[in-house]
Each structure stands twice: as structure tokens, then as C-alpha cells.
Specification:
Layout lengths: L4 H19 L5 H14 L4 E6 L2 E3 L2 E3 L4 E6 L3 E6 L6 H14 L3 E6 L9 E5 L5
Parallel strand pairs: 5-6
Antiparallel strand pairs: 1-4, 2-3, 4-5, 6-7
Length: 129
């Protein structure tokens, strides 16, 4: 049975806060990704790292090199950043991944902040667009 999307996103945010509390800002994105994947697995959530995201064009799946940082429970895309501040292009990237994957909810997490709460964006794909 699929887990509730809000329960999943809350668990991801809690795990991300635990990772950020332990490591703080200043590391590479890959370090946060590995630690967050470990933390999520410890919390008994199914997590896939660097999952290939093909582009469908004229009914054909094409591998264009896109990779999701994390896919949690097959439902939530987690895109990690270590930037000075999140930019509109980061949200556009996550929205594109949501459209390509068929997932409805994604989290954009910027670990390069003093307080992680300020680096979290939850995006929901509007299926009516």
C-alpha cells in the first residue's frame, strides 16, 4: 500500500534536518545525498539515488543524461543543492523532473544554509496545466 505523500515529505524533511544538524553547511552536494539516502533507509523508506530520468519524445524514451538525486517511495523527487540561494531555475528543474516522471510532489533542499528550514521548497505539480 502506498504511503501518504504528506507523511513521506515530512519524513524526508526530518531526515534532511538530522543530516544538516550533524554536518552543517559547506560540504559537496554528493555528501549530503549519500547521508540523506542512508538516513532515509534507516527510517525504512525506499530510496533510489541518481535514478535515470528519460525524456519521452514522440512516444520514444530517450536517455538524455538526466538523473534524479533521490526518488523516495517511488513518489517524491528530492533535488539537493548546495548554493548561496535557491534560484527560479532550480524550481524549474524540479518541475520539469516532476512532469517527466509523473510524480506530483518534489522537495528542493539547499544544504548551504545556516538553518535548513530556510533552504526547503516543496513543489506540487498542477496536473491541470
Amino acid at each position: 500500500m502506498a504511503k501518504d505523500i504528506n507523511t513521506i515529505t515530512e519524513a524526508i524533511i526530518g531526515a534532511a534536518m538530522a543530516v544538516h544538524k550533524a554536518l552543517g553547511p559547506g560540504l559537496l552536494e554528493s555528501a549530503y545525498e549519500a547521508c540523506l539516502a542512508f538516513e532515509l533507509a534507516e527510517r525504512r523508506l525506499a530510496v533510489e539515488q541518481q535514478k535515470a530520468m528519460p525524456v519521452r519524445y514522440r512516444g520514444v524514451k530517450l536517455d538524455c543524461g538526466y538523473r534524479l538525486d533521490l526518488l523516495v517511495e517511488g513518489q517524491v523527487i528530492v533535488e539537493l543543492k548546495t548554493v548561496d540561494r535557491l534560484q527560479p531555475i532550480h524550481e524549474a528543474q524540479l518541475l520539469s523532473y516532476l512532469k517527466l516522471s509523473g510524480c506530483q510532489v518534489g522537495l528542493l533542499l539547499n544544504f548551504n544554509v545556516k538553518v535548513l528550514r530556510k533552504g526547503i521548497r516543496r513543489l506540487v505539480l498542477n496536473l491541470e496545466e
